[in-house]
Sequence to fold (284 residues):
Amino acid sequence: MTGILLSLLGSTFGGGASLNVDYLVVAGGGGGGYPAGGGGGAGGYRTNAALSVTSGTAYTVTVGAGGAGGVNPAAAGTGGDSVFSTITSTGGGGGGSSGVPPTSGGSGGGAGNDGTSISGAAASPSGQGNAGGNNNSGNPYPCGGGGGAGAVGGTGSGSQSGAGGAGSASSITGTSVTRAGGGGGASTAQGAVAGAGGAGGGGDGQTSSVAAQQGTANTGGGGGGGRNAPGGVGATGGSGIVILKYPDTYTISNPGGGLTYSTSTAGGYKITTFTNGTGNVQWN
Fold:
């Protein structure tokens, strides 16, 4: 009886109600390497249903930026982390290049090529994506593709640089959308053919006539690797995204601002999509 009374008093005098929130949290993709660059790894991908939150309580949301493409001789940048409450998705790893190894991340960056055997970087922490692809040290020196949320990055083989690993699909918005594909490895002046970006926003590697492609914004796709020739450069990874689904009896707000977002309603739920920034949200 005492416990019931205390519960009622808490509800009456400001105790927040609990609600369940489904989430998709995708981090920013890693940049592509340069020169002879591997593809950038996709941003970490985390999704689940029914995370319990309390109305009137502030929760952090951050949308991670894409990592910068490699500019010789610096390493490609890792993507920025995306966050909702206690859930953090790790930014994608940067693609490697001639003399610079790829870096780990939500998905690992693909290996570049300097004529030695180099492995793609690991997905770290595990469970958010996949490793990047290895290179092949033989002439014409193909590069590795960046890892994707749904598959490892392609390994360079023969005259073909690795494709980016495929992303993963989510229907949290009511429509199935694939995100977090890895970036493709670059072509090389010795004759290796560029790898395609992975499904879900991964950028294509640079060819002899077309620049490396950036990861698609708000997918967490990895950037394509840059070619080892004049005018080459690694491409920037795509920014991440945070999507929250919750009962339509609640309204979300962003006290203090800092976030770019939109909300739709369908089937008794609201779906709020955050595409930029960092700040706090709460439900009322």
Notes: The helical segments are 2-12. Residues 17-284 form one domain.
